[in-house]
Amino acid sequence: MSTIAPERAVPTPRELTTEPRFSDKVFRAVVTVGGLSSLIILGLIALFLGYRGFEVLRQEGFKFLTSSDWSISTDDAGNVLESHFGLAAMLVGTILCSIVAVAIALPISVFSALFLNFYAPGWLKKILVTVIDMMAAFPSILFGIWGFLVLMPSVEYWAKLLHHYFGFLPFFKLEPYVVTRSPFVAGVVLAIMIIPIITSVSREIFSQAPLDRIQAAYALGATRWAMIKAVVIPHGKSGVIGGAMLGLGRAMGETVAVYTVLNIVFQVNWQMLLGAGGNVASLIILKFGEASPYEIKALMAAGLILFFLTLIVNALADVIVRATGRSGR
Amino acid sequence: MTTISAPAPTRPWKASPKDRLRDVALFLFAIVGTYVVVAVTPMKGKLAYFGLFFIFYMALTAGFQWFTRGSAAAKDAFVNSLVAIGAVVTVIPIASIIVTVVVKGSKGLHMGLLTTDMSMSAPTDPIASGGLLHAITGTLTLVVLALIMSIPIGILTALYLTEIRGSLTRPIQFLVQAMSGVPSIVAGLFILSAVLYPITKGYSGFMGALALTILMIPTVARTSQEVLKLIPNDLREAGVALGGTQWRTVAMIVLPAARSGLITAVILGIARIAGETAPILLLTGGGDRVNPNAFSGSIGSLPYYIWKSFNAGSPEAITRAWAGLLVLMVLVLILFSLARLLGTRKVAR
Amino acid sequence: MNDSHESEKENMETTTRPSSLADVANAKVQKAPGTRAMGTGLETRGIHAWFGKNHVLSDINLDFAAGTVTALIGPSGCGKSTFIRTINRMHEFIPGAAMAGEVLLDGRDVYAQGTDVTKIRLQIGMVFQKPNPFPSMTIGENVLSGLKLSQQKVSNKDELLEECLERAGLWNEVKDRLGAHGGSLSGGQQQRLCIARALAVRPQVLLMDEPCSALDPGSTLRIEETIRHLSDTMTIIIVTHNMQQAARVSDYTAFFLSDGGPGQMIEASPTSEIFSRPRDKRTENYVTGRFG
């Protein structure tokens, strides 16, 4: 008792430093540069498109997004006399087509993902998963031409039916009766393109639904559907929304399929059955062929807008999918 | 060990013959009902048959369950039909695309298709003249160039995400995801503005390959990352514990272990870009003659050929477009099957 | 190997340690089986089970009288869990599963053609090894989830909620936060929530698959009390690795064993007997801790 306990010296922790060997330093440097490539490329895209489009963006200002006038007149020497560039019609078309696409694709994809996970027997599941993944690898020009030559005639028929029965709704209204090559048809083609994407994302998320909860639901006398509603849907909801956003991003940026199917007209058109519209990507292909250098700058500016639009949608998708991944664990 | 004569295993939860008979009966009733309604009402066409059949089937099965087992079972039966429709509607376009392309494309096949180019013929000429040689060699050139550039970058990105795991892992993961969402036309415009206008000032295969590289990197990086994640960590630790540097461990242990998976990643990347059209239209010029020089002069490719023929509009040209689509589709299918074949033994040692 | 560790834990909780498992079994109130009017109980006739070609369970014949607690004991992999999963037809969810034999609930075979399997599972409830409340639902919703899943309507939801939580021994702890999420409870509370959830659909039989193996000793005791209370009104079958627990809660005990082949039922007797004078040498070896 009399001895004073020696004050215990808390040792300072030793620093654990590993001096990597030279070869490892080189290795890490090379890999890091490679890893940064995505940052560099995305940065360069924004930089160059912004640089080329700057002049047009400054001249047009906010009108670039709000007006629908796309015209340029030059004198004989090729100097620009007057020009108006406005993306409004194309932006509306981009949004309209991609929303139609997601609205059609989302329920179908969710149903088929549920079918694959909880209904299909093993052999059928294997075949269908392969076929659907394969479809995701099909080039868009295939969808475009198939959509134009095979799908359009029958979609026209459905469009007429929609107009006939739901014509009182403003976006199904059809004033001049032109149904071919409408945003609705383009939306259907895009829907077929993005169904495989949304299906495989949803299938992945649904397959991670916790097995013990699934068993708990069945043990409480649930039917398969009651189980899905109580366990699988709450678990996978935000993941499916994230998948839908990925599909939306793909649909917004699609060029060839939309250009093939749509009748590109510079006029803001919210009536999805009317044969007029366009999207930003198809505008670029349409105007590129005979564009003057100044108009090319306008197309670069349009590309920049499209780039940011898809970037935002993809960022949202990423945030949503990741949020589910974390809460699921 | 006592041997007990066990009875035969049974699965009483599987549908009995009686259940199957009932299902078939309901199915037949639905077909009959569909025919009757299509016959007496103005609703006509394939879609009417399709839609009505599902409505009938859904109503019959749900109704049957309602009477025998109550509302929960009825809802379950209803959803059963609904998810089946989902799967059918997903598969129909694939079947339709494949059948259409094979049927229409086969009309455009002829002896000289793979040995001649279009330098002496126009898209509207009779089908037997001209061929795809320039387009196939062009696509091969573009793909090989894109491969040379995108494989190192894609795999390095995957290595950064799995082996280095620095502070930037999370942002780079996000950027790779964002890059996979870059519209192909934007990639084309970027190469146009950053390389073609200021530097080369002319169409060439290389320009197209640069744009395709941008599109291929995220596919290769993400698939490789998945594969590298599957390599067990003790393999890495074993390498380092044996005194190997990280560089040697990765190069001699990790990458060889992941080899077939990495090949899968590359093949999926090729499938992604082989049919890419929009940037090709902006950057390659789409020549009609075989161009062995990828760095100068316009070069043809399958998507460009299809596009050009399709827009020429005459029946011969459209048939050419279908034939081109058939060749392209077969190419993508072969690549995809290869990827599957290798992918099934991803981590085989 | 596991049991010695667990009995140590038990020791910390109980103040006086009974000299043997047989004393534990005798210490509780004995009750005569089948005296209450709650159906005639449950019988299994020649149950076999397979996973693919693998024969895992052979010829189990057991009677579970109404209002009794039966413990199934035995080493890991002897088919106890598989057996109780054949009773409420959860066995069939495993791909490649097959079975033979009959499970008679009030004299009717639950595997008979045309039986609605969801109705069977409402009559035979189940509590799992790991607590598994539905994460998206509140505590109250979790308790009533069985009704929602099977689309049953009840007029007095609040009464039912209180009654089930009361019987599961959880009411006092959660009555002020029924709107909180199930995940906010402790492991033991979650397990009692799962018991309350199983009770809400008023099953005749409750199957418990090692319900305490993921819980601390305190929570284990609470659940054992709950089981004793519940056995006044229902038939309970509990799988356990813990022989102390079997001795404390059960009226009857069945010993399962696999000798490398399919699991078999070696012996079934009143609990006090099986721990004091087992008839089979293998049972004796197991309950005295010589193996397993």
From TrEMBL, chain A:
Alphabetically ordered keywords of this record: Cell membrane, Membrane, Phosphate transport, Transmembrane, Transmembrane helix, Transport
Main location: membrane
Subcellular location: Cell membrane
Annotated ABC transmembrane type-1 domain residues: 91-317
GO BP, one annotated term: phosphate ion transport
SUPFAM superfamilies: MetI-like
GO molecular function: phosphate transmembrane transporter activity
Membrane topology listed for this record: Multi-pass membrane protein
Gene Ontology CC annotations of this record: plasma membrane
Membrane-traversing stretches: 26-51, 87-120, 127-152, 184-206, 227-248, 268-286, 298-317
Record family assignment: Belongs to the binding-protein-dependent transport system permease family. CysTW subfamily.
NCBIfam families linked to this entry: phosphate_pstC
Record protein name field: Unannotated protein
Biological source species: freshwater metagenome
Lineage: unclassified sequences, metagenomes, ecological metagenomes
From TrEMBL, chain B:
Subcellular localization(s) per the UniProt record: Cell membrane
GO biological process: phosphate ion transmembrane transport
Membrane-topology annotation of the record: Multi-pass membrane protein
ABC transmembrane type-1 domain boundaries: 136-339
Primary subcellular site in the record, as a coarse category: membrane
CC terms in the record's Gene Ontology section: plasma membrane
Alphabetized UniProt keyword annotations: Cell membrane, Membrane, Phosphate transport, Transmembrane, Transmembrane helix, Transport
Transmembrane segment boundaries: 21-41, 47-67, 79-103, 140-162, 174-197, 203-221, 250-274, 321-343
Pfam families assigned: BPD_transp_1
Molecular-function GO term, any one: phosphate transmembrane transporter activity
PANTHER family in UniProt: PHOSPHATE TRANSPORT SYSTEM PERMEASE PROTEIN PSTA
Family: Belongs to the binding-protein-dependent transport system permease family. CysTW subfamily.
Protein name (database record): Unannotated protein
Automatic annotation (TrEMBL), chain C:
Keywords: ATP-binding, Nucleotide-binding, Transport
Biological processes, Gene Ontology terms: phosphate ion transmembrane transport
Cleavable signal peptide: none
Biased composition (Basic and acidic residues): 1-12
Gene Ontology CC entries for this record: membrane
Organism from which the protein derives: freshwater metagenome
Protein name per its UniProtKB record: Unannotated protein
Domain ABC transporter: 42-287
Pfam families assigned to the protein according to its UniProt record, in alphabetical order: ABC_tran
Stretches for region Disordered: 1-38
